[in-house]
Amino acid sequence: MVDLNTLLKTLCESRPVFHSEFDFQHALAWQIHESWTGYSVRLEYPLSPEESNRLDILAFDDKESIAIELKYKKKALKTEIGSESFTLKQDAAWPINRYYFLKDVQRLEQFVNKGKDTTGYAILLTNEGSYWNLPKHDPNVCPDFSIHDRNTIHGTLRWGPKASSGTRKGREQPIVIKGTYTLVWQDYYEVTPTPQMPLAASGKFRYLLVKIIN
Q: What is the pLDDT of residues 13-42, one digit of tens each?
């Protein structure tokens, strides 16, 4: 049986930090190819012939399909891993990013429910503690979209009454989560600071993995 947690632990040994979300997507797909013997791997797999939306990764053999949506959200960081330099730029708009992660969960539920022997995984990898910590924002903006550690998501999730029109633009529709998921953040990698590159709190990478089954 495949295990995404084990796969991510293996991946961090060779790729502890990524330049971008696409870099993460490609590296994870390659790790699946290397680790899951007998599975075919596809990137940007269409959810259906009628839709423009695509899965980040689909892995499948003759018995099951594994659908993966991933997000990589960054806090500003400069570091070196081996001989490779990384300069990560800050990803802001935390409420919007939380919305889109939960949108991934909704989309995966819909995809899994249509298929036989299909499992979905929504992954968020980040070095921004604002995602796994209890939010300090105005509780009237987006409490439904909080993804902090040990939070539970279920049901219809909506913007709060103080969410601005700019924040909601293109994201007005509520998110409907049919399952019930307790969110558990796990450590991925922690960059060792140096006198030349002090890291403060931005060197700790953690990931959230939500498993969706039919």
A: 999 999 999 999 999 999 999 999 999 999
Residue 97 in tokens: 């990013």
Residue 161 near residue 114 (C-beta atoms within 8 A): no
Orientation angle between helical segments 21-35 and 4-14, nearest 10 degrees: 110
Q: Give me 193's structure tokens.
A: 């600071």
Are the beta carbons of 67 and 80 closer than 8 angstroms? no
Q: Name the pTM for this structure.
A: 0.93
**Size of the chain in residues:** 214
106 neighbors 183 (Cβ within 8 angstroms): no
Report whether pLDDT(126) > 80. Answer: yes
Cβ-based neighbours of 66, under 8 Å, separated by 6 or more: 2, 32, 39, 57, 58, 59, 60, 118, 119, 120, 121
Report whether 112 contacts 65 (CB < 8 A).
no
DSSP β-bridge partners for residue 60:
40, 65
CA dihedral 109, 149, 147, 127 (to 10 degrees): -110
Any idea what the Cα angle at residue 96 is, between residues 28 and 210, rounded to 5°?
A: 40
Ranges of each domain in the chain: 4-135+184-213
